[in-house]
UniProtKB/TrEMBL annotation:
It comes from the Eukaryota. This is Ketoreductase domain-containing protein. Residues 168-337 form the Ketoreductase domain. One of its GO terms (molecular function) is oxidoreductase activity, acting on the CH-OH group of donors, NAD or NADP as acceptor. It comes from Triparma retinervis. SUPFAM superfamilies: NAD(P)-binding Rossmann-fold domains (SSF51735). InterPro entries: KR_dom, NAD(P)-bd_dom_sf, SDR_fam.
Length: 400
């Protein structure tokens, strides 16, 4: 197939996610089947459907009826670029949330044809308002589709603590370009004092133009990188974003040991070491949040990326472990799919066509801003979201 034909396929449909950024959405709230016909009877841009009262033993048929009526009306009346969130709980049963999850993953693919997305927020503990649902029902999550996010609703004491904590200092590794650079910009918008970290050989021009509080030039694989960062920023970090990462793609048959070691060292071992040092040297404030950048390759694997997938999947397990052993802090990941960065720009055009037009229901690649928006939410909002890996992939048809 000629490059001209391939390019025409890539340009066949406008990037849907781009069309929906920047809106201020006020989601409709549906809490029972009685609300469905009256609330979802006309075109709408955003809705939260609360199934929590139906997620208990003996309510399977009621939930089934509610699922059908609400999803049918959503399919009929959701506007272009609509944002839908299903709200569930597993505090008494997993069966019911499982039903909703299957529906969400299916309907999200139907809505994607019009640039719409649908996600699910599951409450594992607590009652009350769920900020994650509000975020996913807005335009800050334009490239998050078909995903489940588990949430513990914080008690009043924890909620007050987070509200008083403020923004403070944030550190972003891999900050000179791509997702790291856009994350720096987003965190500046949110009011953080941002320190950008990147390899000394990098181009820091774009980062310096942002007006960061400090630029730290170091190799994250340095044995004392965490200590050097703490010293450079003066400690007191409220948010650490591990955006530094590399690829060295080869099939395992052709993979040299050095290529394997380099990727694991940067993408996983350096993060472990930096976090450990930042905890030991007091670089992290109590309540600090740490966000890693995993990948859909870490979720589902990918041909020729055994080293990359191992490191990014290890990062998924790492944030789960750290939340269990360090209650004073919160770890989460984002897992980008096919994002428009330097890392993906050199891929063959056929890969872009297959990934965006076949594997991604939104029929487009995401932008670094899409990932940065979710990182910003995990750093500022995201109360009760712990040990999660939130995919920012347009609903890519790999993994779960």
């Amino acid at each position: 197939m000629s490059q001209k034909i391939l390019r025409s396929l890539v340009d066949w449909k406008a990037p849907l996610a781009k069309l929906s950024r920047g809106r201020t959405l006020r989601p409709l709230l549906i809490t029972s089947p009685d609300c469905v016909s009256s609330t979802l009877c006309a075109p709408f841009d955003s809705a939260i459907v609360d199934f929590r009262d139906y997620c208990s033993a003996g309510r399977e048929k009621d939930l089934s009826d509610y699922l059908y009526s609400s999803s049918h009306m959503i399919a009929l009346n959701a506007s272009k670029n609509a944002r839908i969130v299903a709200l569930t709980t597993t505090q008494s049963s997993n069966l019911h949330a499982g039903m909703v999850e299957g529906l969400v993953r299916s309907l999200s693919k139907e809505l994607a044809g019009k640039g719409g997305v649908m996600n699910m927020v599951n409450v594992t503990k607590g009652k009350g308002e769920v900020g994650a649902a509000e975020f996913l029902a807005g335009d800050g999550a334009a490239f998050v589709n078909g995903q489940r996010v588990d949430v513990e609703i914080p008690d009043e004491e924890s909620r007050e603590y987070y509200e008083k904590r403020g923004r403070g200092k944030a550190v972003v590794t891999g900050a000179a370009r791509g997702i790291g650079l856009q994350t720096v910009k987003r965190l500046k918008e949110l009011g953080f004092e941002v320190y950008g970290v990147d390899h000394p050989a990098g181009d820091f021009g774009a980062l310096e133009e942002v007006g960061v509080e400090g630029v730290v030039k170091l190799d994250v694989t340095d044995e004392v990188a965490g200590d050097l960062i703490a010293g450079a920023v003066g400690g007191g970090v409220n948010l650490m974003v591990h955006a530094a990462g590399i690829t060295r793609d080869k099939t395992m048959k052709r993979m040299k040991r050095g290529l394997w070691d380099d990727v694991v060292a940067v993408n996983l071992l350096a993060i472990q070491r930096m976090d450990s040092q930042m905890i030991e040297n007091g670089g992290y404030n109590d309540g600090a949040r740490v966000v890693g950048v995993s990948s859909t390759s870490g979720v589902a694997g990918n041909v020729g990326q055994g080293n990359y997938a191992a490191s990014k999947s290890g990062l998924i397990g790492y944030v789960e472990d750290m939340n269990g052993s360090h209650a004073r802090f919160t770890w989460n990941n984002v897992a980008p799919g096919f994002i428009n960065t330097d890392m993906t720009s050199n891929l063959p055009l056929v890969n872009e066509v297959v990934t965006t037009r076949v594997l991604t229901p939104l029929k487009t690649m995401g932008e670094p801003e899409d990932v940065a928006g979710v990182i910003g939410w995990l750093g500022v909002g995201g109360k009760g979201v712990r040990g999660q890996t939130v995919r920012v992939c347009g609903g890519m048809l790999v993994g779960r």
